[in-house]
Structure formats: C-alpha cells, structure tokens
C-alpha cells in the first residue's frame, strides 16, 4: 500500500508546506468566527436584551458546546468515509447565517440559534483541519503540526476578540463586530473550495507504512474496528485516549466558563469595553502563541508530563483570577491560564494521533473532540449555576479544583505515547488490540 500512494503523495511538513500553510490560514478563519462574539455577546445580552441571570446568559455557550461536540463526531466519521474536503466545505456553509443572525437578532433566542450553527461550523471545520494536518505531516511532527494549527486558531480568536471589542466601543455593539464574520466566511469558502486538496491519500500512505514496519497483523485488526469499539476505546478503555478525553473536557470546561464569566467578572471593576476585550484576548493570545512552541516541545520530551503540568498551571491561574480584583491581577491570571492551556491543547491532539490507527484516526479525533468540546457546555451550565447560587469567584474555584483532579488522573493513568527515543513497549501498558506505534525516525 505504501508504494501505491507514495508516487502521488509524501508525508512530512516540508513536503506538504503549501497545503499545510493553507490549512493553517483556514483554521485561523475558523477561530476568528468565535472571536467575533466572545467579548461582545455577553455585553450585548445585558445592554440590549436585559439579561442578568448567569445561568440563562450562559445558555449560548452551552448551545455552542453541545452543537460543536455533536458535529465533531460527524466530522470524524464522515471524513473517514467520504474524505476530508467535503466535510470542510459543509462546515463553512453552516457559518453563512451566523453573523447575520447576530446583527439582526430581535431577542436572545436568535443568539442561541446562531451559536448552534456556529458550533456545527466549528466542529466540522476545526476537526477536519486537525485531521488533514495529521494526515499530511506523518508521525514524526504531529506535535509541531498541532501546535501550529491550534496557534493559528486561537491566535485568531484573540486577535478578532480584541478587534471586535474595539469596533464595539467605537461603533456600537451591532453591527460592526459581526461584519468580521461575514468577511471570514466568504474568504474561507473561496480557499476551501478552490485551493484545498484532499488529504485522505496521505492517511492511506501512513497506514501502508505501518504495515511495512512489520505490524500488519496487529494493526490490520485495529483497522477493522467498529465505530462502537472506537468510541469505547477513546472514551473509557484505552488509557491514553480516555485520559486525553478527560483532560480535554476539563480544559474546555475552563474555556467555556471563561467565555461566559470573564466579561461579567471584569465588568465588576468598571473596566471599559476595550479593556475587557484586551483581558479576554490575553488568554487565547498567549494560548495561541505558546502552542507554536509547546507542540514541538512535546515531539522532543513526550506528551504525558506536559499535559499534567499544563492542567496544574491552569488550576493556579484560575485561583489567581478568583483572588484578583483589578486589571493587573486579572491580566496575570489570564496570561498564566493561556500558558497552561498551550501546554495541554496541541499535546492532547498529538497523543490521540500517536495512538489511533490511520484508518480510524478521523473517528478517534472526532470522539476525543466530542468529549473535549462538551466541556464548553459543562462549564457554562455548571459555572452558571454555581455563579448564580454562590458567586462568580466560587465558579472559578470549582474549575480550579476540577483542573487539579484532571492532572492527577492523567499522571496516574496515561502512559507516554511519544517518547523522545523509541523503546520497547512495556507488557500490559496498553490493550493488546491497540499497541503503541513509536515511529520516530
């Protein structure tokens, strides 16, 4: 199989630099669709719709998270069955109404409906760009690839959030911030439809390389796993995959909580809209830039300890934000939260790519992202309830405690999926049906 595809395709970042760079740019547009509303929509809810209850206000984050989590499953399944590019294009079609609905919304239900469509857009497009980059680069540079992918996406979240906050302060909450989304969607449809090429042949080449290394019998059985078996392994049974799913859920619980809570918390100090936008941009900004380094670092030192440390850094950052009362303390906390998230985010995706067989990698990534993005909804709902009943700071302390618990779970259960130097797999370290495949050159 390797010879069949090698003439037309090659694995590696350098060999696929043009397509990889194009997908990085598209994922930046994906992130920008979220950034257009993050700092603005909670303020819009208060100013124009008179919403004050945290639980009700966070419904738009929950709607987004549930829709995104569900569409991640379809992104992985459909991309394995029909190819990556059709799923990417379909995801951008769902984005078309989103900014228009937010501009024209007569009541809050429109904002919730727009976030359902945005969640579908994010699940289909972001998942697919992740899968396509893993396809292109092969096993040796997965961490670097995921770092660049997530850096582009969350860097664009930060930049667009800052830009949207500026436009909201200068020109009003509507329509100026959401005009960015219209431009992003039009550009993404053009790039995805005309210039992106299908990457599924690269996954087939990777699968052929695995067989040629003498693992064909075991991996051949892996290639025939059912959707139910893949879901079970990724969610519960396989130690590395299921640990990644848990850590991803808690990581996005923190992000979902921050999305709905941070603008309201920062507004208690009578900060201006642009200052709130800056504070909110620091978190994904540091997160985005940091991933350019942490993803590559995980290729050198491994995944497990970087994930464990990153969850503990996030817990520390949430505690600092809970104890803060002004711009300086909150800025320090959001910067640290971004750093901790950067340690975790691309590393978890790389770990999933390490363990999953290329023939069902898309589905494994999709299932991992189902659990991870359910964190948006869990954080929004639980955080909103705790904030309503006890206060904003109590919701932050809850998230900090959950981050510590996730770090402990990873430290105990996850094995190292990508050591800096290949070594024999310890007996019993992973289920026999899913052996680890260390492919460092």
Automatic annotation (TrEMBL):
Domain of life where this protein originates: Bacteria
Keyword Nucleus assigned: no
Annotated region (Disordered), positions in chain: 420-441
Parts of the chain that traverse the membrane: 20-39, 51-75, 87-105, 111-132, 144-166, 178-196, 246-269, 275-294, 306-324, 330-353, 374-390, 396-415
UniProt entry keywords in alphabetical sequence: Cell membrane, Membrane, Transmembrane, Transmembrane helix, Transport
UniProt subcellular location: Cell membrane
Topology versus the membrane: Multi-pass membrane protein
Domain spans labelled Major facilitator superfamily (MFS) profile: 20-418
Keyword check for Transmembrane: yes
Main location: membrane
Protein name: MFS family permease
């Amino acid at each position: 199989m390797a010879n069949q595809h090698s003439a037309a395709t090659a694995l590696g970042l350098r060999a696929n630099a043009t397509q990889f760079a194009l997908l990085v740019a598209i994922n930046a547009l994906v992130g920008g669709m979220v950034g257009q509303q993050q700092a603005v929509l909670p303020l819009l809810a208060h100013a124009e719709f008179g919403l004050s209850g945290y639980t009700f206000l966070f419904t738009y984050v929950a709607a987004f998270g549930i829709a995104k989590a569900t569409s991640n499953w379809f992104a992985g399944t459909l991309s394995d069955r029909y190819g990556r590019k059709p799923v990417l294009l379909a995801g951008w079609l769902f984005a078309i109404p989103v900014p228009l609905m937010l501009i024209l919304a007569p009541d809050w239900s429109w904002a919730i409906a727009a976030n359902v469509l945005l969640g579908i857009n994010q699940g289909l497009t972001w998942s697919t760009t992740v899968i396509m980059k893993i396809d292109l680069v092969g096993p040796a540079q997965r961490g670097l690839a995921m770092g660049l992918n997530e850096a582009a996406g969350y860097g664009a979240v930060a930049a667009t959030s800052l830009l949207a906050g500026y436009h909201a302060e200068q020109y009003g909450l509507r329509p100026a911030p959401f005009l960015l989304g219209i431009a992003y969607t039009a550009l993404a449809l053009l790039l995805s439809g005309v210039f992106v090429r299908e990457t599924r042949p690269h996954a087939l080449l990777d699968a052929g390389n695995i067989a040629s290394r003498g693992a064909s019998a075991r991996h051949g059985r892996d290639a025939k796993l059912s959707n139910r078996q893949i879901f079970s392994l990724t969610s519960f049974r396989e130690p590395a995959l299921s640990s990644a799913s848990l850590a991803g859920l808690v990581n996005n619980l923190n992000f979902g909580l921050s999305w709905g809570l941070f603008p309201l918390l920062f507004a208690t100090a009578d900060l201006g809209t642009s200052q709130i936008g800056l504070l909110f941009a620091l978190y994904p900004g540091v997160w985005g830039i940091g991933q350019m380094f942490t993803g590559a670092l995980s290729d050198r030192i491994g995944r497990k300890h970087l994930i464990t440390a990153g969850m503990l850094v996030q817990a520390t950052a949430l505690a600092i934000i809970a104890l803060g009362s002004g711009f300086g303390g909150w800025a320090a906390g959001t910067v640290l939260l971004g750093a901790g998230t950067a340690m975790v985010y691309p590393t978890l995706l790389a770990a999933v790519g390490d363990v999953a067989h290329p023939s069902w990698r898309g589905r494994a990534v999709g299932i991992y992202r189902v659990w991870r993005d359910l964190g948006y909804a869990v954080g929004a709902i639980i955080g909103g309830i705790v904030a309503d009943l006890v206060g904003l700071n109590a919701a932050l302390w809850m998230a900090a405690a959950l981050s510590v618990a996730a770090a402990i779970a990873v430290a105990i259960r996850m094995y190292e999926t990508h050591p800096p130097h290949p070594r024999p797999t310890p007996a019993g370290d992973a289920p026999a049906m899913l052996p680890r495949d260390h492919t460092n050159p």
